Amino acid sequence: MTALYTLTDLSKRYTRGKESITIFEQLDMTIDQGDFISIMGPSGSGKTTLLNLLGGIDRPSSGAVDCEGTRVDKLSEGKLAKWRSQHVGFIFQFYNLMPTLSAAQNVELPLLLTNLSGKERKRRVETALDIVGILDRKGHRPAQLSGGQQQRVGIARAIVADPKVLLCDEPTGDLDRNTADEVLETLQLLNRELNKTIVMVTHDPAAAGYASKELHLDKGRFVAKENT
């Protein structure tokens, strides 16, 4: 397996008034290309903080976040934004769709920062919507879609720029069980067929079971469990 991310001696601390709160202390972690990892743990254990560090939204207090030889934690804001747009797709619990835009327009948003032609953007948008099985809803606005359909639009938006890694923060937390399973099966498809590396934070043991590897985060340390 080829390492995609290598985290070394990673520490993250926040200051609240005069109090220093430690989230991680000298955390080491390797994420291989093609991994599908679920991260579970109690509230406040640092699950979302870890996603933010992987995606370059937050920076560690000390230590290194390396992605294929690029020190993500050392990039300037401008270079970080460009790196993020090329390498990372984000999937959120509450979809974060623009209510006045159609499904296709929402998916196209990340491509508006590129130099792609309108024709190429349209091709990529329709390909992404087709992959997640919702191309027939491309003209619908979010209010005209079910929760599961909205999340599929969110997934299409995350993959439209063909990133290597998808960072998912409670992607099924707002869905019923059947709809959640459909979304998780879509993530499995992206992992197995398109070799997308997926790191998913969840509180749901059933959702975690869709990943090939479970990591339980507590007090800044991981305990791993391999899924079959």
Concise structural overview:
The protein is α/β, with parallel strands linked by helices and 228 residues long. Helix content is 32%, strand content 29%. A six-stranded mixed sheet has the order 6-7-8-3-9-10.
Q: What can be said about the biggest beta sheet? A: 6 strands, mixed
Uncertain residue segments: none
Strand content: 25-35%
Instruction: Give the overall shape.
Output: globular
Order of helices and strands: EEEHEEHEHHHEHEHEE
| Main sheet: strand order | 6-7-8-3-9-10
Structural class: alpha/beta
Count of extended strands:
10
State Rg: 18 Å
Helix content: 25-40%
Number of H/I helices? 7
Cα end-to-end separation: 18 Å
Task: Look at the structure and give the mean pLDDT.
Answer: 90
How would you portray this structure in words?
- By secondary structure, the protein is of the alpha/beta class.
- Helices cover 32% and strands 29% of the residues.
- It is built from seven helices and ten strands.
- It has helices at 47-54, 77-87, 103-108, 118-131, 147-159, 177-194, 205-208, and strands at 3-16, 19-32, 36-40, 62-67, 70-71, 88-91, 165-169, 197-201, 213-218, 221-226.
- The chain has a six-stranded mixed beta sheet. Strands 2-1-4-5 form a four-stranded antiparallel beta sheet, covered by helices on one side.
- β1 and β2 form a beta hairpin.
- α4 (118-131) crosses α5 and α5 (147-159) runs parallel beside α6.
- It is globular, with a radius of gyration of 18 Å.
